[in-house]
TrEMBL record:
PROSITE patterns: CLAT_ADAPTOR_M_2, MHD. Keywords: Membrane, Protein transport, Transport. InterPro entries: Adaptor_comp_med_subunit, AP2_Mu_C_sf, Clathrin_mu, Clathrin_mu_CS, MHD. The keyword Hydrolase does not apply. This is MHD domain-containing protein. Residues 1-149 form the MHD domain. One of its GO terms (biological process) is vesicle-mediated transport. It is found in: Endomembrane system. GO terms for cellular component: clathrin adaptor complex; endomembrane system.
Amino acid sequence: VLFRSVDLEDIKFHQCVRLARFENDRTISFIPPDGSFDLMTYRLSTQVKPLIWVEAQVERYSRSRVEMLIKAKSQFKERSYATNVEIELPVPPDATNPSVRTSMGSATYAPENDAIMWKIRSFPGNKEYLLRAEFLLPSVSADDGVPER
C-alpha cells in the first residue's frame, strides 16, 4: 500500500491534545472536552483536490439587484459522507433584503459577517447542491446625485 504524504503548516491543536505524544510519534492523542470543538487547524502548502468544490456565478441585473448562483459538489466516493458542512459566502457590506433558496440544507444571512452561511448537515459523496441568493445594493454611483451648478 502506497501512502502519499501531505505537508501541514501552521498546525494549532486544541488544548486537550497531548503535545508530547504528537512530537514523539506523530500520534494525535486527546481526551475530548464536552461539546463541539476544533481539534486542530492547519494550512496546506501543496495542491490537493478539495473534498467539496464550490463555484460561484454572480449576475448584476441592474445597478441595485444582484443574484448569486453557488454550486457545491462533493469530490469523494459515493459511499462516504461529509457532516456538518458550512460554506461562508461573502456578500457586499451594503447588501440588503437577501432572499436565499437552497436545494439542500439551510442558509441564513449573517450581516455581522457580511456573509450568507450555508449549512448542510449530511453531504454524500459525488453529489451537487445549489444555492441561489438575490439581494439589493444601493444604486448610488459616483456620478449620481451630484447637483449641477
